[in-house]
Amino acid sequence: MVNKLEILDGKKVADASDKKMAKRVADLKNQNVTPGLAVILVGDNSASSIYVRNKKRRAEKLGINFQLIHFDDSITENELLEKIEQLNNDETVDGFIVQLPLPDHIDEEKVIQAIDSKKDVDGFAPKNVGNLWTGEPHTLPATASGIMMMLDFYNVDIDGKNVVIIGRSNIVGKPVAAMMLAKNATVTITHSHTKNLADVAKNADILVVAIGQAKFINKSFVKDDAVVIDVGMDHDENGKLCGDVDFDDVKDIVSLISPVPGGVGPMTITALMDQVIELAEGRANG
Ligand SMILES: NC(=O)C1=CN([C@@H]2O[C@H](COP(=O)(O)OP(=O)(O)OC[C@H]3O[C@@H](n4cnc5c(N)ncnc54)[C@H](OP(=O)(O)O)[C@@H]3O)[C@@H](O)[C@H]2O)C=CC1
Ligand SMILES: Nc1nc(=O)c2c([nH]1)NC[C@@H]1CN(c3ccc(C(=O)N[C@@H](CCC(=O)O)C(=O)O)cc3)C=[N+]21
């Protein structure tokens, strides 16, 4: 079978949206409002560090105020909660993120609940999660939104399609499921207890992989002509950044695939910046 490989080029989609977003930031600055984003990073998780570095770069490019608050692993839960309270009350900060995962001695649930849902640009606060499933959400998880924006850019039809998601995290798997369902996909969420994962995954017209295992998904998991979205931020045996999908193994059978790097990562940042700008627009309009 002859197959024309097409890449879901997240970098290209991101560059196109940057032009529109920079214009919105300029309009806000004319009204004396500068969008503000703060990020709390505890310790130095590798995927988090990549995310922080690229967010800073993109915020600076777009003219968004970016503030990194970097704590050592030894920070106490109370110190972290105090910082969150301060950001909740800081009028120059439109939105902020607490990078996950957090060290074991900190209760992630408690931290997320402390974030003012109006400033929760990750869309992780319980109120925003609830709204994601019932409609009219205030903020949305950036990775899932970024994936949907990318599929939209490439005119990938979702209605009635079989979407299989591998991974059920609150950051990626579950919000992707909610958004795909809202677009009328038939959604299957799989995880480490799923039996016959390859057979289930082979039903997917659109396969979304977010497990954090380098090159785990090879062509035995992928149907011919499937669309494959690789969320993983892993490292191969040479320490090089790679995804959860073995790109070279599947590239000849898929119809569309997002690479790592240059796929979902840049789209996550696009979706995040879009959300920060939107909150600042809300502030400017009173
Ligand atoms: N590009 C981006 O924008 C982003 C990238 N990432 C990256 O995506 C990956 C996943 O992140 P995240 O969702 O936070 O990960 P988590 O570790 O929170 O969750 C991983 C999920 O994958 C499942 N899983 C793990 N191994 C297997 C397996 N062998 N077979 C089936 N299911 C499996 C787990 O199952 P169970 O629940 O049963 O344990 C769990 O549901 C990471 O590499 C991360 O760095 C994350 C966020 C954003
Ligand atoms: N509260 C919280 N929300 C998150 O959304 C969140 C998090 N914590 N913790 C960590 C993961 C990981 N994540 C990434 C986003 C973009 C890139 C990214 O920019 N990737 C580039 C990397 C390119 C490079 O610089 O080498 C790419 O794929 O092209 C990476 C990783 C968000 N996460």
Please provide a brief summary of the model.
By secondary structure, this protein is α/β, with parallel strands linked by helices.
Annotate the secondary structure layout.
Blueprint lengths: L5 E2 L2 H21 L5 E7 L3 H17 L2 E7 L5 H12 L6 E4 L9 H7 L11 H9 L7 H12 L8 E5 L6 H10 L3 E5 L6 H5 L4 E4 L17 E4 L3 E2 L5 E2 L4 H4 L5 E2 L6 H21 L2
Parallel strand pairs: 1-11, 2-3, 2-4, 5-6, 5-7, 7-8, 8-11
Antiparallel strand pairs: 9-10
Helix pairs in contact: 1-10, 2-10, 6-7, 6-10
Description of the structure:
With 286 residues, the chain is α/β, with parallel strands linked by helices. The protein has two domains: 32-116, Leucine Dehydrogenase, chain A, domain 1 (Rossmann fold); 142-265, NAD(P)-binding Rossmann-like Domain (Rossmann fold, 3-Layer(aba) Sandwich), CATH 3.40.50.720. It has helices at 10-30, 46-62, 77-88, 108-114, 126-134, 142-153, 173-182, 197-201, 247-250, 264-284; strands at residues 6-7, 36-42, 65-71, 95-98, 162-166, 186-190, 206-209, 227-230, 234-235, 241-242, 256-257. A six-stranded parallel beta sheet has the order 1-11-8-7-5-6. A three-stranded parallel beta sheet has the order 3-2-4. It has a two-stranded antiparallel ribbon with strand order 9-10. The radius of gyration is 19 Å and the shape is globular.
How many structural domains in the coordinates? 2
Distance between the termini: 58 Å
CATH architecture of the largest domain: 3-Layer(aba) Sandwich
Largest β-sheet summary: 6 strands, parallel
Relevant CATH superfamily of the largest domain: NAD(P)-binding Rossmann-like Domain
Predict the CATH topology of the largest domain.
Rossmann fold
- Determine the fraction of residues in helical runs and give it as a percent range: 40-55%
Number of β-strand runs:
11
Keywords: Amino-acid biosynthesis, Histidine biosynthesis, Hydrolase, Methionine biosynthesis, Multifunctional enzyme, NADP, One-carbon metabolism, Oxidoreductase, Purine biosynthesis
Domain Tetrahydrofolate dehydrogenase/cyclohydrolase NAD(P)-binding: 141-281
Subunit structure: Homodimer.
Protein name: Bifunctional protein FolD
